[in-house]
Design brief:
It comes from Enterococcus saccharolyticus subsp. saccharolyticus ATCC 43076. This protein is α+β, with helices and mostly antiparallel strands. About 25% of the residues lie in helices and about 25% in strands.
Length: about 220
């Protein structure tokens, strides 16, 4: 069985990205200066949006990381186990992080494990699947960048995009649209993010972003 995750390779979709993205320098806005890293360049990880976003977050705090370095520290689980269960993204990256369509991403819990290994006692890694978006806003407005699980192209998922996924730990909900970004600012009706597709301070409608955040399980990670 094949699953589309993170990276859409067709030229039509990539053209659509370039048409709707409006990057800004951030000079006139109160945006957080998070370094940009692309999942698609320099030893690409085509399905590695989450670990690339984590690398961006850690680099903001002065840690000399790369997506590939962190990917080696990440736990992995098979897409489908020998017993016929799907991999649980809350336990490790599901499937192939490097390329192809046999993957279903990773939740914030395995990312937090990697983050704790890198930060040691210097920071507390705050990870949650329960925070209201207003709490995320509070952190960002206080100058704290936040990694969140979103969707490819910030498409608000429909019921058809949210799949029942039977794991060894029970039934969970996943989406083939899953993606991850780092929030760098919120101004008015706009959320600004570093998108690991290679776009800094990408603009997203705030209401849509909040809806995506909630539908994708309210997954967030930041340092304190």
């Amino acid at each position: 069985m094949w699953f589309t995750h993170h990276f859409r390779q067709d030229s039509t979709m990539m053209q659509t990205y370039s048409e709707i993205i409006h990057p800004t320098s951030g000079d006139s806005l109160n945006l957080i200066d998070v370094p940009l890293e692309s999942q698609l360049k320099n030893d690409p990880l085509e399905n590695g949006c989450e670990i690339t976003s984590l690398s961006m977050l850690l680099r903001y705090y002065g840690f000399d990381t790369t997506k590939n370095q962190l990917a080696k520290k990440l736990d992995y689980v098979p897409l489908i186990s020998a017993d016929g269960f799907y991999g649980n993204p809350h336990k490790g990256f599901v499937g192939n992080i490097e390329e192809g369509y046999e993957s279903m991403g990773v939740g914030v819990e395995p990312l937090a494990k990697v983050a704790k290994e890198i930060t040691g006692s210097n920071y507390q890694v705050k990870v949650s699947t329960k925070k209201d978006f207003s709490e995320i806003e509070e952190q960002v407005r206080a100058g704290v960048p936040v990694l969140v699980i979103t969707t490819v192209d910030f498409e608000v998922p429909t019921e058809d995009d949210l799949w029942d996924w039977e794991t060894e730990d029970g039934m969970i909900t996943v989406s083939p649209l899953c993606h991850a970004v780092v929030i760098t600012g919120i101004e008015g009706d706009t959320v600004y993010v570093n998108d690991p597709y290679g776009y800094r301070h990408r603009e997203v409608d705030r209401d849509n972003f909040q809806s995506i955040y909630e539908k994708m399980g309210k997954q967030s990670l930041y340092l304190e």
